[in-house]
């Protein structure tokens, strides 16, 4: 018997809101309708498993999606639980009454009841974003049930009539609207299905081909899987990518449900902040690749999949809602990652060290941004020196204790950011028997500051930040061969020859083997400028300040005596030559100054 009626909506004008604004992206309609079809199939399987459905399931339980461009129809079919006319009224006509919610409540004590995807009862209405008219042709699994047909044109009016559908299940027929032609293109539908339905737990067929993997490896036990399974799945997620370094299989059922696999890709020496590399699923339905609330920011460098039914979604399942579970999941993932790194470090230190160049940016960023991660990572975060040896922080403390403890009893850790450019300073340090660390990644300017805050009685100094004897001041002092008068005179000669107020000249009692002139930028200024380059908060103003340098004239170098003994007209020329040599050693000499240096060099050679 035919029946007409009005869809029950308790809030005035909510239907246009659902139809037009609930889903920001119109392509979501296909995800919702296919998910509903998967739900119906899963429900039937559950009922069969617990003996409440006695009939044959049949071999073909696929969800089928088809498109008829000429007829302007998209059809989503399943052979699931189906509906009676009364159920259509209950689940379709009463918006926001979720059949999945009721089903889970009814069968909550049965196995796998929580695998039902549906959550809000609104997904079906996303169909009206692309369709003028939507039809439901359905037949319930219940014995003796009559098939029913429901039609709605997007208004609040519907019509239910008997149907001649012979087989159990449901067909959703969308009569595509004029402004939604793109969804009549098979290639467009395939793209949407691949994006959202790639891992749905029931086979989804489109144009005669199954487009999904119903049993992705994150749903399996790690004991069932091989390394090949993990790398193969990684290639499935990220075709043409380099193989991952290693991975973590997440699996927890208390106090929340969470499964997934996180892969560690090779991370270069820069910030490769490749967002959207971790995919979030809820019961194998793709939700989003914006996971910043679920995953700590530093873990955004990882790749992989997280699947949790306990992550709270808004009603369109398109973004997350703030919730205590999100914070718990965030903390859990951080702990699992730290534990995995620690495990690899302890079990295979050599293998871990071999991967360090690929993961050090990630580990350092985690230590900087997450206190709990730092507490764990301090035991497996490594420092590398110029000889290629690796140390934990505690190991390095012990390594330099004897030789690099200054007179104030603080340890001084020397480091280089550019081994080639800072070679002369490195050589001077090594000549004293000092060790030099390699800290040359973009994050290291921030990492260095953090280490100084965390480590007691430890200072880090770039190897070219001052003369070596000032970088690590010892009790013993070097004598200077110059008198106070000569020191004053020499300072005046260099200041006049350099003629630059940003160059602060001092005469120092250095080793005769050191360079005659050493130019350094004060550690504080240089560090602030390094941080400014990488967006170091309030340090941006430092990037606009003029560079200032310390010019240390080596009072014990033989060339200094030559300057003092030279004729007055030659003193400044030789001083300028020594200064330019210091500039040249640091690649700071160019343009007219470089040309003048070359000419002056020729003149000095000719005089010799």
Automatic annotation (TrEMBL):
Transmembrane segments: none
Record-linked Pfam families: HATPase_c_3, HSP90
Binding site for ATP: 32, 36, 78, 83, 98-99, 119-124, 170, 317
Family membership: Belongs to the heat shock protein 90 family.
Protein name: Chaperone protein HtpG
Entry keyword set: ATP-binding, Chaperone, Cytoplasm, Nucleotide-binding, Stress response
InterPro entries for this protein: HATPase_C_sf, Heat_shock_protein_90_CS, HSP90_C, Hsp90_fam, Hsp90_N, Ribosomal_Su5_D2-typ_SF
Keyword Hydrolase found: no
NCBIfam families in UniProt: PRK05218.1
Highest taxon above the source species: Bacteria
Any GO MF annotation of the entry: ATP-dependent protein folding chaperone
